[in-house]
Amino acid sequence: LPMSYYQEDFFKEYLKMMTNIVVLSLLICISLAFWMVSMTASTYYGTLRPISPWRWLFSVLVPLAIVTQGFKKKSLDHSGALGGLVVGFILTVANYSFFTALFVFFVTSSKLTKWKKDMKKQIDSEYKEGGQRNWVQVFCNGGVPTELAILYMIENGPGEIPIDFSRQYTASWMCLSLLGALACSAGDTWASEIGTVMSKSKPRLITTWEKVPVGTNGGITLVGLFSSLLGGMVVGAAYFIAQLLFVSDLDISAPQWPIIVFGAAAGFLGSIVDSYLGATMQYSGFDKNICMVVNHQTKDSKHISGKPILDNNAVNLFSSVVIALVLPGVAWGFWPRG
């Protein structure tokens, strides 16, 4: 006999519940397996600090839930979801402050990408519904933080530490470098997503200060610059809040509030570096057929600025590398000592 509507609905809900139980059981098994490997390595080498099974579980379960939601809402495609899972897992197992900064960057960037999407479709020739970031975009924004998180675990082991150059110079440098890369990406995204639709004035090319069409690589506005500073500050504030929640010895360490200022500076300066690279090494032309700025040469496009050396993903990657390498050294000179 055919199932009734209610029976079919009940069966679907039951199947969904059982699937969730199976997935959760697998995640627990994976977490325990990672923990056993961690304990074995700790016993063998004698110097490594073992990671608790709860940390392993959190590092697998939470990034999986986030990328699943991102995929459902079209913020990530299939490859982007897999790449995001790798990045999220490594940053989470390394340091919860890393995860918090990454989470805030991803959520705010995804929301802003969808914000005023109808206007953005009219000015962005490569606009995708929901953003739909692929693995290349994920690793160009998250590759530098991922590598730094791995180096951090090699240097310090997984866990949260206060940023204090006088006590833990190398680990503190890596933390700020990672935060700088994330804040740089956030600043660039906020500037692009807010500045293009909120600025009342036309952007000016950062190299010549000439007015250029909206969407030109290297074009800046006051609204965009302020947005980049705000985006970096939000990521820095997220990192700072995580420090307050998860770090135990803040009372004997250097003050952590400069993290917020550092994030703001990384967002602002990262946007400047990104704009300069975009203006010089990324092609921008105005296509008369579609009346939009394009990032590649066409037979109907008129050159505005830049040479076709890098694409947008490469510009984002190089910008985050520059900020990650330079800004922590500058911050060291101004950072308060504990």
From TrEMBL:
The chain crosses the membrane at residues 21-41, 83-107, 220-247, 259-279, 317-335. It comes from the Eukaryota. The keyword Transmembrane applies. GO terms for cellular component: membrane. Keywords: Membrane, Transmembrane, Transmembrane helix. It is a multi-pass membrane protein. It is found in: Membrane. Belongs to the TMEM19 family. This is Transmembrane protein 19. It comes from Dromaius novaehollandiae. The gene is Tmem19.
